[in-house]
Amino acid sequence: MTGRGVLDGPDAARLRAIAESAIDEALPREGDRPAELSAAMRYAVGSGGKRIRPLVCLASAVAAGGSAEDARHPAAAIELLHNYTLVHDDLPAMDGDVERRGRPTVWKKFGETCAILAGDALQALAYRTAAKAPRNVAAILDALGEAGVGVVRGQVEDVGGDIDVPFVYRHKTADLFVAAAKMGALAGGGGEREVSRIGEYALALGMAFQYEDDAIDGDGPFAAERAAELAREATEEAVRALDGLPGDCTFLRELAMSLADRKI
Length: 264
What we know:
Layout: H1 3-7, H2 10-26, H3 35-45, H4 52-63, H5 72-89, E1 99-100, E2 103-104, H6 106-110, H7 112-130, H8 137-158, H9 165-187, H10 192-217, H11 224-241, H12 250-259
Antiparallel strand pairs: 1-2
Helix pairs in contact: 2-4, 2-5, 3-7, 4-5, 4-9, 5-7, 5-8, 5-9, 7-8, 8-9, 9-10, 10-11, 11-12
């Protein structure tokens, strides 16, 4: 099964519906003052994407022995945080991208000032949303904060010239996967062992995701064959980390195996 097949399947659709509902609840209403800020925030988060991180969050709650609904607010929070990083990453001071997912980037459509403030607001809203989790709120906020700082660390290293590739991959890509998984497990009532194992899964998943991007695009620091090998190794590590968890790990297992074999 390809990555797109898993992400377009009925299990993903059910989980995505939970995440989309929570994301919509969290975002400001159209027309809320200032209207331009509300529009920019909704535009940033509603511009497509597979919602992989929220899916990981929800499925991690299940794997830890809880239900997907337990993690609806953390799932929304990780997507809000993720999109804040994209909004700021696209700015002229960073990558200067004018298009994302086939549409103008937020700064290109709304201007740089509004894009900066929309990203700031999305970051703050992520914490407010995560705080609505049914249990383990302090630990959930800690995991979200660790990822938020980690992404910035990775970005600074990435734009600094002579980069440490594993460090950048670990923080710019994998940290958000780790936060998504840990927050889901915590919201689902997982204990220290479950949270740790699901965190291991997500770290390997995030690294595999980045390595596979390199193999597909051919523009990373590794040759395509080596990148594909690294992706396979990380995927095997992710799948092993799921052994012995109390809940259903089927979706997480299939997701890991399919993302490392995707073609787009």
